[in-house]
Design a protein that fits this description.
- The chain is α/β, with parallel strands linked by helices.
- The chain has two domains: 353 residues, TIM Barrel (Alpha-Beta Barrel), CATH 3.20.20.300; 152 residues, Glycoside hydrolase family 3 C-terminal domain (Rossmann fold), CATH 3.40.50.
- Helix content is 37%, strand content 11%.
- The strands form five sheets. It has a six-stranded mixed sheet with strand order 11-18-17-16-12-15. A five-stranded parallel sheet has the order 4-3-2-1-10. Strands 5-7-9 form a three-stranded parallel sheet.
- Strand 2, helix 4 and strand 3 form a beta-alpha-beta unit.
- Helix 1 packs across helix 14.
- It is globular and about 80 Å long.
- The two termini are 17 Å apart.
- The C terminus is likely disordered.
- Belongs to the glycosyl hydrolase 3 family.
Amino acid sequence: MQRPLTREEQEWVERTLASMSLREKIGQTMQDHAGRLPFKGNDEQALAAYLKTYPVGSFFIGGEVIQKAAGKAEEYRDWAEQLQRISKYPLLFSGDLEFGAGSAVKSLTAFPPLLGLAAADDEALAYEYGKFTALEGRAAGFTWALAPGTDLLLNWMNPVITTRCLGDDARRAARLAGAVMRGMQDHGLAACAKHFPGDGVDYRDQHIVTTINGLSEEEWFAAYGQVSQHMIDQGVLSYMTGHIALPWLEGGTQEEKPVPATVSERITTGLLRERMGFAGVVLSDALDMGGFLAWGSYEKRMVDCFNCGTDVLLWPGVEYFGVMEQAVSEGTVLMERLDASVRRVLELKALLGVHRVDQKGRDPQAVPLLNDRLPPKLDLEARQLSRTIAERCITLVRNRGGILPLNPQTTRRVLVVLLNKVTEGRKYERMNVFVELLRARGLQVDILDEFEPLGTLHKWELSGIRWDAAFAPYFLPLHGMMNTARPVGEAAKAIWAMQHAETIRPIGISFATPYLLQDMPFLDALINAYSLHEETVELTVKALFGEVPFQGQSPVKADPLDGSPDLRGLHHEH
């Protein structure tokens, strides 16, 4: 459980709350996006004027997980210090630190994704995952990780969480997410479990439309409820609600709009707070997402989001200040309700010690940076952890006829059918690392990356070409093709094209979705590597040739011949 506030911290909270104007209180319930400010981000004069008009309580910094890591740690730390100096009240800085601090900041350590961590299935590694995310993150200015993901992958077609969760088993997800969270919070970084009441049941994307978690009450408590209760009992400091409806609790006919958790008092207050006992900060998911925009007018969306029990609204836009001021004056938002949220935000700040930043905005709890990284010993430990998880996560899902490992003495010429192209002209170049590693072994590598005419491979065979092995590596980044994680477009055509060949037994290697066998059931062998994390790719190639073992255990039912997640047997546990 999270420690209680000291008397000094509690007094700071109450003193600070009492000193705030209405507009300053409203600001504490809004999180702004530092990368979207209407001027150059480090313009001190413009920042001071902005924060005077819009006294926000927290900023999102770093690259978004649906895009890519960006920037240097020292730049973010300097930026955070500058903002702390200017702000009247101490700020929180959040980021998408889902796969280590390097998933938001390019110069820091990126770990294999959560699904890779689940394949390694080791609580001690999960704790270290959280610990080094916190040490690197706090050194770079972050105090709040919008992580770990506590969703469950119960629908293989879900396009959002794929490798961003800990698999399809609630017990494993609870164990590992709890360990990641403790690692973060023991080292000065607030964790945020997400996305309540749980993504991964729908085949659609909440960035586009309100999605549905269609489990029954009993199924929900045995799955998502079990993970959520564990996180709450272990003391998670914040929870993110998603634009996800939960029909067993917040019903409605088909003619009515589904009610996302981000506007549902029954889900956010009734279930999360009252029934499950969560006392920390509730943060909404981004309010520029389609699953939220459909709810109603801007004013209605914002007031409903706040009134349902949300403490901090993520990216509502600065119009939020005026809407909330009017709502308070009209009595549609009560001051007691506003004060309750502000108090929770200030308590989080006190727990994290951000009220102790010095006059220059420096954080006394942050580990110093050296050449944009942690001090050498800690930096080495972070990198070793990254490699250890890579070694432990690579999973051999199917190996009919013992195709793998390949014999390095007799494997000289190989075919690579690249499944990394979704539309004409759009390839993901990072897949080249895989090809370069094969060539570095002295192999002759033939590449098929154009799939018209479909019979090209068979034409090559008729000319006498034979390959000692054929690989079908697949990669599609999150939102690389909006609304799907599957091979689509040109990548789907590649699957069609390779089946025209008569002499190959393709070895599938997924650096993305773990469910490639759903679209390529004819594969005799499949390896799940979960990401193009550099060391994972290197170790995957070594595993192909038997130089390192496959150590991962699939965290989802990746082979359709093994059946799919069956919720009927779940029992009521909460």
